[in-house]
Amino acid sequence: MAFFWDWIKNILAYFGFGRQAKLLLIGLDNAGKSTLMDRLASGRIIQHPPTSQTRSKELRLGDITFIAYDLGGHVQARRVWRDYFPAVDGIVFLVDAADSARFQEAFIELDSILHDETITSVPILVLGNKNDKREAVEEENLSHALGLTMHRTGKDTHAQLNGRPCELFMCSVLQQQGYGTAFRWLASQVKSAT
Ligand SMILES: Nc1nc2c(ncn2[C@@H]2O[C@H](COP(=O)(O)OP(=O)(O)OP(=O)(O)O)[C@@H](O)[C@H]2O)c(=O)[nH]1
Ligand SMILES: [Mg+2]
């Protein structure tokens, strides 16, 4: 557990000192957003009913504050996503990589975020979650299905980018695998944008 907190602390340290980084966790319902939020906040797996009220968790570590907003993913709840766009520092878009029947629906939502004029330079981390499941597709397949190939900017945490940073990482929140690297990438992009 101590190792886990150190690991999270290192990730959060990337966000810089004394400023609040505002992150949105969005994606279709059932993608795993609330599960991820609890993992990040407490290291635990908690079963939730579908999120109807936005939840936010604040993690204070030293003088660094990290606020994550977990927004519901069902159709009605998606309407409020844009209310959170002003002053956002990073967007995490979760996809259930084992639910190929819903890739098209995820593509439509993600595409409208990628083309939203109010957040043209905000880094976007796409997480292909649940890759512990047998049905989960490979990264390149998911990238293609989500129309991400043209938007991806690479996993290098030191690259100086002109356009918006956008990248896809596969992970399993359940098995605590993959999202550490992904958040390190996102943190590096948020930091280099400030
Ligand atoms: N196998 C597997 N299941 C997962 C993983 N992450 C989340 N789940 C499961 O997926 C289901 C939905 O997770 P939630 O975190 O409630 O999904 P959500 O994105 O918050 O959904 P909404 O609140 O409805 O938008 C739960 O049963 C989780 O236990 C994972 O990495 N692997
Ligand atoms: Mg939820």
TrEMBL record:
GO terms for molecular function: G protein activity; GTP binding. It is found in: Endoplasmic reticulum membrane; Golgi apparatus, Golgi stack membrane. Its main location: endoplasmic reticulum. It catalyses: GTP + H2O = GDP + phosphate + H(+). Coiled coil: none annotated. It is an enzyme of class 3 (hydrolase). It comes from the Eukaryota. GTP binds at residues 27-35, 73, 129-132, 173-174. Its EC number is 3.6.5.2. Mg(2+) binds at D29, S34, T51. Keywords: Endoplasmic reticulum, ER-Golgi transport, Golgi apparatus, GTP-binding, Hydrolase, Magnesium, Membrane, Metal-binding, Nucleotide-binding, Protein transport, Transport. It is a peripheral membrane protein. GO terms for cellular component: endoplasmic reticulum membrane; Golgi cisterna membrane. GO terms for biological process: protein transport; vesicle-mediated transport. Belongs to the small GTPase superfamily. SAR1 family. This is small monomeric GTPase. It comes from Sinanodonta woodiana (Chinese pond mussel).
